Amino acid sequence: MTSQLVLGNGFGVAVASDSAMTLTGAEEPRTYETAEKIFPLPLPHRLAVLTSGAALLHGLPFDVLLKEWIRSLGDARESQLRSVELYRESFLSWLRDNLDRWVTPERREAEALGYLEGQLEIVRERIETAIAEGPERDPVDTTLQFLRERNAWILDCSPLESVSEELVERSFDRLWQEIEGQRRGLSNLVVDCFAGLPWSDEIDYEVQWLLKHTIEKSDRFPTGDQTELAFVGYGSTDLLPCVMTLTTSGAIEDHIWRQTPFVEPARPDGRGYGLIYSQAQDDQIRLILSGYDQALTTELTTAVLARYSVDPWAEAIESENASDEDSSAFDPAAFRSTMREEQANVAWKMKLAPARATVALLPLETLVDTARSLVAVQTLSQTIRGRLPTVGGKIESATITLNEGFQWHSRKDVSPPSS
After folding, report:
1. Cα 102 to chain center, whole Å?
2. Which is it for strands 56-57 and 255-258: parallel, antiparallel or unpaired?
3. Which DSSP symbol is given to 28?
4. Which among 251, 158, 290, 273 has a CA at the least distance from the CA of 213?
5. How far apart are CA 196 and CA 225, in angstroms?
6. In which band, very low, low, confident or very high, does the pLDDT at 419 lie, cut at 50, 70 and 90?
7. What angle do the packed helices 201-217 and 105-133 form, to 10 degrees?
8. Cβ atoms of residues 216 and 241 within 8 Å
9. N or C: less crowded end of the chain, CB within 10 Å?
10. Does residue 21 contact residue 32 with C-beta atoms inside 8 Å?
11. Which residues of 208-271 form beta strands (DSSP E)?
């Protein structure tokens, strides 16, 4: 994991990141404190890219990919792009053009099949559990009910960016077919995964529907890993900083599967313009800035409902005397939503709005010190709880300004500037 924070205002933008990297592929997770997670662009560019999550894209480190992309931009005045969004698009275009340099189409398809096989195995386990828990029901009905409920859940998920119906169908058809002597297809994996379970034409339809919409909407497709990149800084026409994200899990053919980007420009706050953005492991940072813990609120709401013998996930509970016109029936889902909304509103009024108004006016040196301190708190919270130190190591920080571009403030091998 990682902890990263961006604070910005009219003076410039400050970025801070830990340098810990946890590898989980070995027998026991191991943490190293030498990872590079801030990638600056040289002048005339006034931008940096922060990375969190998986360190590799189809086997090659993002460290290598980002540095190659930065080198391809050059440092001529005309190489400067107009906006942060265009820098993100430039990196995406570079990735598409260079995918085949380090990963074959066959490997990309094999990784996608591996991810989908894992999803099918999860589905099988849950169907087996549902059948065992309801032996009085027809196993076919139980299987269909589970698949339909899961498909309804997938249908409500947010769509990925630039994933068309045509692209989904083409990818599904390609992965469905076995290529003799090279690889098995999704059709083979479905047969293996559902061996011994109920089967029918309806179940076959629901399984294929599930696979297609997993391809369309899963934020972990096609590799199961996920990396979040934050493009931070200025385009050539900007006077205020902006953050734009790229969250990806890999590519099929030449398409980069990715989530819809999150965009956070500096916004009017108090008498100035403020920007606050955090990514990866940031619950303690958010707690300080907003004054409440969203996960704790969710658990508290569940506990209160349970104390009054209310199923937290139930539909609206009809009152015994409720008529058709009576709208007073208690709805647990609406209660949970109201709790989240009201707590967010109170947090904004009491904590976050004053914090943003303060950030909007802080001098740049104070801004970067504040960012470093908040990332340090995230590290401290793991130490106090005795957790694996997935956040830690030397905290690196830097500033980005219109006139001077990117400048390191503190780095693993560089002492902070003297005051």
Report:
1. 25
2. unpaired
3. S
4. 158
5. 30
6. very low
7. 130
8. no
9. C
10. yes
11. 227-234, 242-252, 255-258, 263-265, 267-269
